[in-house]
Amino acid sequence: MEINKTFFAPRLYIRSGVTNIGFYATGLQAIELRRWSNNDGTLHVAELSINGAIFHLREESSLKPGRFSPEKHSGTTAAIGLFVPDVDACINRAIAAGATEISPAKDYDYGY
User: Fold this and answer.
1) How many domains would you assign to the chain?
2) Domain harbouring 42, CATH code
3) Which long-range contacts (CB under 8 A, 24 or more apart) does 60-68 make?
4) Are strands 53-59 and 11-14 parallel, antiparallel or unpaired?
5) Does residue 89 lie within any of the structural domains?
6) Single pTM value for the model
7) Does residue 77 fall inside a structural domain?
């Protein structure tokens, strides 16, 4: 992969044993760019893109400290802003694909 611009690619850790990452395609319209699997078939890393914004999914690992899925802490341990043209459509798709809405979308005084 040739890199010709600087970008930020968040790394999201998911529960071990999860190889079906279809939620991201169905719920967020992500495109899987590439995937690397471990010898046992588990997910090593998947690189996805939403409208050109790249992010990585990796399995949690007890062998590497700090790599844990949100379930380990009763929810996410990070917040990542995803800016899309139609936030309501994006949220509705994600919920239909299995997401849980914990805070509804709203307009803020500072423009977001």
Assistant:
1) 1
2) 3.10.180.10
3) 60/13, 60/14, 60/15, 60/16, 61/16, 67/13, 68/13
4) parallel
5) yes
6) 0.64
7) yes
